[in-house]
Write a structure and sequence with these properties.
This protein has 126 residues and is of the alpha+beta class. The chain has helices spanning 9-24, 104-111, 116-125; strands at 35-44, 56-64, 69-77, 80-93, 98-99. It contains 3 helices and 5 strands.
Length: 126
Amino acid sequence: MDAYGHVNNAVFVRYLEEARIDFLFRPEKNFKQGSVVARHEIDYKRQLVHRHHPVDIELWITEIRAASFTITCEVKDDDVVYARASTVVVPFDFEAERPRRITPEEKEFLREYMDDAADEEEAVAA
């Protein structure tokens, strides 16, 4: 909470990070080989005041490229959206210290969470 009594913008980034890590590093499907954030874009829609119950974060994939993908999120309660964000994630080989391509297994996992509009755009581009 900041001096104005609402959740600070930096805290929103932490919320998004927690959701992204929970999504990408689940035991059954994950990016254990590593990934890094290349870009964050956040639109703050409404102030979120401090409270003792959690806020929901809904996420989906909006773009899959050869060596990056975009996760789009909404921080929300039911129909109230507090922030909408997109994060470009790059798979990364930490041993070689460079980006790597998305594996076929990772791509298959990501496609399960693609929104319908993005899925149609990818099909047209292919």
